[in-house]
Design brief:
This protein has about 300 residues and is mainly α. It is built from eleven helices and two strands, in the order ααααββααααααα. It has a domain of about 210 residues.
């Protein structure tokens, strides 16, 4: 029984880690390339989920809802970049934090006005609605496996894009020395806009994929944004490889810690105090990991070259 539970919770941790990666990947690109702190990045995750619900109601097709919601997430991200964010690039980080926090408040209220405050739901596509037998007596939802597979595919695509293409070369060069790249004839503003739009689309994709599992509601991106920042700090700001590994570590540590912390502590203390201490330690575990990484490797586990 313990083995089955451990396997299921490990898969749940991988699914959570992949979700964190989809959000943190765009955040680390924006922060690493543009040195821009965007607290409103979590709002794109929320908007992706809401847009998927809206387009599914309009089309009745999950595939069309996915495509339209991705395009709409990209459009919203580019609009915000053009109207608001590009005017903050040359401001200090405090101004960026205050401005993007204001955007969170505005968009949370806008979502309530458009879709209401009640939680919404998105059905799992029929072809992915069942479960698969992993071993005798152990089944696992297909949609969660789809999320894991999609996240791994996106991670591979991003790695190739950033490390093996001309666009990736420009992104890495812009992260190290944006004025020099601009002096060589590259439109750095356009490059930044593309990076920002791509990052918001990844966050929207995460929201779309998780919408059939979680309730779609205002403010759903606020908590996960904090974890996304923890991921990029542990992995290394601007590093796709570091972000992917750190996201999986955080996902597994959080899920397994909440599931087995109490049982583990019962090996060393009485059941009653273990029941009290276990959940507290589990909730702090990822932040303890971040503190240790900051102490021993302040630039993260896998910082990009040149940092």
């Amino acid at each position: 029984m313990f083995t089955y539970l451990f396997i299921v919770q490990t898969l749940n941790g991988l699914q959570f880690g992949v979700l964190l990666f989809l959000i943190a990947a765009g955040l680390t690109l924006v922060f690493g390339v543009m040195n821009f702190i965007n607290l409103a990045h979590g709002v794109q995750y929320m908007l992706g989920a809401y847009l998927a619900v809206m387009f599914y109601a309009m089309t009745g097709s999950m595939l069309l809802a996915l495509v339209f919601a991705l395009l709409a997430s990209l459009a919203v991200g580019l609009f915000l970049e053009f109207v608001i964010f590009r005017h903050l690039y040359d401001r200090d980080h405090l101004d960026q934090v205050i401005a993007t926090f204001g955007i969170i408040l505005f968009l949370d209220q806008a979502v309530k006005y458009v879709w209401g405050a009640a939680p919404l739901s998105l059905p799992i596509p029929d072809m992915f609605s069942g479960s698969v037998v992993l071993m005798p007596g152990l089944i696992y939802p297909i949609w969660r496996l789809v999320i894991i597979g999609s996240g791994i595919a996106v991670a591979l695509l991003l790695y190739v894009l950033v490390s093996r293409t001309r666009f990736g070369m420009l992104v890495r060069a812009g992260a190290n020395n944006a004025p020099m790249v601009s002096a060589l004839g590259v439109n750095i503003r356009r490059l930044f806009m593309i990076v920002f739009g791509f990052g918001t689309m990844l966050a929207g994709f995460a929201g779309i994929m998780i919408a059939p599992i979680l309730s779609v509601q205002p403010g759903m991106g606020d908590t996960i944004l904090i974890l996304a920042f923890v991921v990029i700090v542990i992995g290394g700001i601007g590093s796709i490889r570091g972000t992917f590994i750190a996201a999986l570590l955080i996902g597994l540590a959080d899920t397994l810690g909440r599931s087995f912390a109490v049982d583990f502590l019962r090996l060393f203390m009485a059941p009653s105090p273990a029941q009290v201490v276990g959940p507290a330690i589990a909730s702090m575990l990822i932040y303890l990991m971040m503190a240790l990484v900051l102490y021993f490797r302040p630039t993260g586990l896998f910082p990009p070259k040149g940092r």
